[in-house]
Amino acid sequence: MRIGFFCSLVVYVFISACTPYTETYAPIEAIGVHPNKTVYIGMESCKECHATLVSDHIQTAHWLTSSKINSPRLLPLLEAEKNYFDLKDSTRLSYTFQNETLAQEASRFPFAAPFLVNSIEIIIGSGTKIGNSFLGWEDNSLYQLQGSFHLPSKQWMNSPGFPPVFQAKRSIFPRCLECHTTYAQSENWQSPIPIDRYNKNNIVFGIDCQRCHGEVVEHVKHHRKFPLDSTGKKIVRYSNFTQQQRIDMCALCHSGVGDQIFQPSFSFTPGDELRKFLNTQTTGAPDVHSNQVGLLTLSKCFLESEDMDCMTCHNPHQNERENSIKFNARCIQCHAEPKHTVSLVGKELDCIECHMPVQNSQQMKIQITSDSLVPVGVRTHKIAIY
Question: In angstroms, rounded to a whole number, what is the distance separating the alpha carbons of residues 104 and 308?
Fold first, then answer.
């Protein structure tokens, strides 16, 4: 009896071991499809092999830069001292919450009833530095609402770029979404002429793995079939990129809006030459808020290096904001024995504070009260002696 049971157990274990492991995987489901046949899938498929990377990535500003309204994203907004702000023309913009919905109401004194109510459906910005702006739909047209939330002061404020008086909405064009989503299909996606109308069901929110590593469907299929293959196959490998290709990938969104668009938004793919898609040159000095790549390329560190790029200092898979210890350690990797000409008592290791100070943006200014316009302070990426 015992021998029979033991034999049965051995046969069961043997059969289980031989059963293809891929049967336990969830089906690959598209969450977005580019008309050029690129298929976007959920990061759950990436998590099967890269659980830690995915877990870290969803804490980053890249991932949080856009999403549909949901409870976790609404929680910080509930901490505001008051749920309204006033404009110079006596218009009051108020915010109402119900379950997982958020609405903006515009009213005028005595503020009895709103003359306009807009449903807020999309939240823009990670909320980790300045705050959040909000988008809403009107049929298939996407627009930005006038109110934004300022995280440091926990107050509602006028959205950057809006006038100090009431303006119902501002159109959102594909170039905006190119830096705030992994993919969004406009109705005239083949044309470089921008419009604000989109296929609502074909938007992939946040910046996910596929934005930087390209289409991953075949990569996932390969490694499900060969789970012991530890070398990434059928995926973009940055180790094969030139310095310029690596810089271009970041510059798509970190070199300003661009003076002229030569190709439709979302045409650029990892490894492409950005100059064939977007002219990133701007007049005057690059702004600290939007053109980090432009500032970096003016730095002596960059000019005297053959391989320095954004990832020399930044790990795009992790949220490292305000982690001065990590950033200073990366400076010391190249500058182990810096020769300072002045005494820096207590600041010997604070490379970032001295050589990349916070400066006021000339482009990004915020209006918290009806009679104030304050520039946003951003750490410069021009590494220099100040």
Answer: 45
Q: What does the alpha-carbon distance between residue 160 and residue 174 come to, in Å, rounded to a whole number? A: 19
Determine phi and psi for 301, rounding to 5 degrees: -55, -45
Helices marked H in 173-235: 174-178, 209-213, 217-225
User: Is the Cβ–Cβ distance between 318 and 60 less than 8 Å?
Assistant: yes
Q: Are 288 and 359 in contact (CB under 8 A)?
A: yes
Q: Give the model confidence (pLDDT) of 356-374 as tens digits.
A: 999 999 888 888 776 778 8
**Between 338 and 381, where is the model more confident?**
381
Backbone φ, ψ for residue 219 (5° rounding):
-60, -45
Q: pLDDT for 101-130, tens place per residue?
A: 899 999 998 888 999 999 999 999 988 778
Asked if the model's pLDDT at residue 23 lies above 70, the reply is no
Closest-CA residue to 152 (of 124, 123, 131): 131
SS3 readout for 6-69: HHHHHHHHHHHHHCCHHHHCCCCCEEEECCCCCEEECCHHHHCCCHHHHHHHCCCHHHHCEEEC
Closest CA to 316 of 220, 269, 246: 246
Residue range 199-208, pLDDT digits in tens? 999 999 999 9
* Residue at token pair 């119902």: 168
pLDDT score recorded for residue 9: 40
230 token code pair: 């530890």
Q: Determine the 3-state secondary structure of 274 from DSSP.
A: helix
Enclosing H/E stretch for 117:
strand 116-120
299 contacts: CB under 8 Å, gap ≥ 6: 381, 382, 383, 384
The DSSP element (H or E) to which 74 belongs, if any, is: helix 71-74
Q: Over pLDDT 90: what percentage of the chain?
A: 64
Question: What stretches of 217-305 adopt beta strand conformation (E)?
Answer: 260-261, 278-279
pTM of the model: 0.88
CA distances from 6 to 2, 16, 18, 363 (A): 6, 15, 19, 75
Bridge partners, 66 (sequence order): 124
The average confidence (pLDDT) of the chain is 88
